[in-house]
Design goal:
six-stranded parallel sheet, alpha/beta, 11 helices, globular
Length: 331
């Protein structure tokens, strides 16, 4: 037996039940069983819990983690062995142990600890495809990162600076301003500086010599998408990557035309790692940046697995600062 956070019916955090379930066993020879050391918490977990994104009930929450391999299927043994330090991007991570197919597992480099290992599979690869593939950031570009002090926001700021781009970001408190400043953001705008969305977009352009930005990465959603769109220069791209404040409503394509023939995308990670080897390529570069000290996990919040509901309250209350990780008992 093992402990896990289970969802039997969708709704609020009260639906997150910490209970004993049967420990997984190898079902396919390409599977491995991982003893979790840390588990990454992401907004998509709250969408699964609430029912915004539907999953068959009951289910175990979570999509990423890090730990040590405890069992290996015969085919997976060609790539991994018992005792390997690994991270993974796969369901059912809010648990002591997780069964993972070998193609979703990545061996951690010696210079990467378990905390970083759990923090970067989902959010790290999301940031990576956004700056490397969705809109290929280069030194001549300026990007706007909404909610820069959040877990994905901090990753995007650092990755954009690694690539030499100018970074404008938005925050809600002076404390979060300081976090983004330390990460290298060039311009930090507090939402409270503006009375409305149009004014906030104007402040963004004023901070960029009167010009709109090349790309906006917006994981906030309902409350910011219009301001994000108005902050773009002609032919700019709006990447909608989350619903922290609620889902974005249907958008009239005419808005894209009248505001400069803009581009709009709602990408998802699965499509950017569907090609064989793409997950490994992305994580290899991400962890090389970690080992070089260019990508830093800044003061993650660590919460015991049995108190996972506290993590969801922090996320949904927009009170989190950076990555939230869960820690199973006895680790």
């Amino acid at each position: 037996m093992m402990k896990a956070i289970r969802i039997s019916s969708t709704g609020g955090v009260e639906k997150m039940i910490y209970e004993s379930i049967v420990k997984p066993t190898i079902t396919k020879e390409t599977d491995v069983i991982i003893r979790n050391h840390y588990i990454g918490v992401n907004f998509i977990d709250t969408y699964h819990r609430s029912g915004l994104y539907k999953l068959p009930l009951p289910f175990t929450l979570g999509r990423e983690g890090s730990g040590v391999i405890e069992e290996v299927g015969s085919e997976a043994a060609n790539k991994f062995k018992v005792g390997d330090r690994v991270c993974y991007f796969s369901p059912d991570s809010y648990a002591d142990y997780t069964l993972v197919p070998e193609q979703s597992v990545f061996k951690l480099p010696d210079g990467v600890d378990f905390k970083s290992g759990a923090a970067y599979p989902l959010q790290g690869m999301t940031g990576h495809y956004l700056v490397r593939s969705t809109f290929k950031l280069e030194s001549q570009h300026t990007c706007l990162v909404q909610a820069g002090a959040g877990g994905l926001g901090q990753i995007l700021i650092q990755m954009a600076k690694i690539l030499g781009a100018k970074v404008i970001t938005t925050v809600s408190t002076p404390e979060k301003e300081e976090i983004c400043r330390k990460l290298g953001a060039d311009v930090i705008i507090n939402y409270n500086q503006a009375n409305n969305l149009e004014e906030l977009a104007k402040i963004v352009k004023q901070s960029n010599d009167g010009n709109g930005v090349d790309v906006v990465y917006d994981g906030v959603g309902a409350s910011t998408w219009k301001q994000s769109l108005l902050s773009l220069k002609p032919l700019g791209m709006l990447c909608l990557i989350g619903n922290a404040s609620g889902p974005v409503p249907p958008i009239d394509p005419f808005l894209l035309s009248t505001n400069g023939s803009l581009f709009l995308t709602r990408p998802t990670l699965a499509h950017y790692i569907a090609e064989k080897g793409s997950m490994e390529q992305r994580l290899k570069e991400i962890f090389s940046w970690v080992e070089q000290g260019k990508l830093v996990l800044s003061n993650p919040t660590i919460i015991d697995l049995e108190r996972a509901s506290d993590a969801h309250n922090l996320l949904e209350g927009r009170a989190s600062k950076g990555k939230i990780l869960l820690k199973p008992t006895d680790i």
